[in-house]
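Subject: for your reference before the review

Hello V.,

The reviewers asked for a structural picture of the protein, and I figured it would be easier to keep everything in one thread rather than splitting it across files. Below is the amino acid sequence we used in the manuscript, unchanged from the supplementary table.
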Amino acid sequence: MLELMSESAPVFIAVVFAFALLIGSFLNVIIHRLPIMMEREWRDQAAEQKLKELRTTGRCQRKLEVVHLRNLDPATARSLEGRFDLTVPRSRCPSCGKLITALQNIPVISYLFLKGRCANCKTPISARYPLVELITASLAAITAWHFGAGIEALMAIALAVTLIAIAMIDADTQLIPDSIVLPLMWVGLSMSLLHPLSDTGTLFINPSDAIIGALAGYLSLWSVFWLFKLITGKDGIGYGDFKLLAALGAWLGWQQLPIIIMMSAVVGIVINVTLIVFQGKDRSAPVPFGPYIAAAGWIAMLWGETIRNTYIDLMF
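And here is what came back from the structure prediction:
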C-alpha cells in the first residue's frame, strides 16, 4: 500500500482525504472540549489559591466557612463533575443526553444519513461538524497534492490540521491554547535539526532560519502590541497570536513572516469592515486574529515562495 501511494498521486491524495475526515471528526472533539478543560484547570488553580490563602492567613472564623471553601477543592470538584478530557466521557447529544454510537459518528456520512438530526430526540445537529471534517480533509488533500508522497507532506498535513484546531478555538473563545501552540513551535524548531531532509526546502529548514523565525514571529507582534497599548491604552493583540506566529516562523522560517503578517492583516481588515458595514457588528468588539494568521500560514506554506517572487517581480 505504501508503495502504491508513493507511485500513484491520486491514490495518495484519496487516502489522505479519507483519513483526514477521521482527523476532522476528532478535531471537533478538541475544539469543543479543550476550552472546557482549560476553564476547569483555571478554576482548580483559583480554588487551590483560595485554600492556600485561607490556610496561611489563619482567618477562618467558623467551621462552616472552612467546609464551604473545601467544596472548592479541585479533587472534590473533579469527583463531583467526573473525568472530562479528550476521550472521556463518550460523546452525547447535548439535548437529550443519548450516547452517540460509532455508526452515528462516521464523518459526514452519518450526518447525511441522520439528515442533520439526533437519532433519538431529532434535535438539529449543527452543520459545523461535517464542515470541519470536510475542511480538514480538503486542506489535507490539497497539501498532499502540493508536496507529494513523503515525510514532508505528512508534516505539512500535521501543521495544516493543527492550524484548523487553533483557528476554530480562537474564533469560538478568543483563546489560543498553549497546550497546542507551544508544542507546535517546538516541533518546528526540532524539525530544523533534520535539515536538509526534503528537496523543496519548504519544511525542514536550517536551524538558524527556524530560530530567527520563532524569535522574529514573537517579537514582531509583541512590538505591535506594546506600541498599540502605549498609544491607545488598550490591548490590541493577544499573547496567543505572538506564539502562533512564532510557531509558524519556526516551521517556515523568518522569510515567510512578512507574507503571513501582510495576508492576515489584509484579510482581517476586509472581513471585519464587511461585518461592520453589512451586519452592524460592534466596532469595539474584539476580533480573533488567530484564524487569519492560521490561514495565512497555510497559504504561505504552500505558495509563499511563489507569492514572494511574484511580488518582487512586480515591484522591481
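For the response letter, the relevant points are probably these. The chain has a mean pLDDT of 86. The chain has two domains: 2-113, 150-315.

Happy to draft the paragraph if you're swamped.

O.
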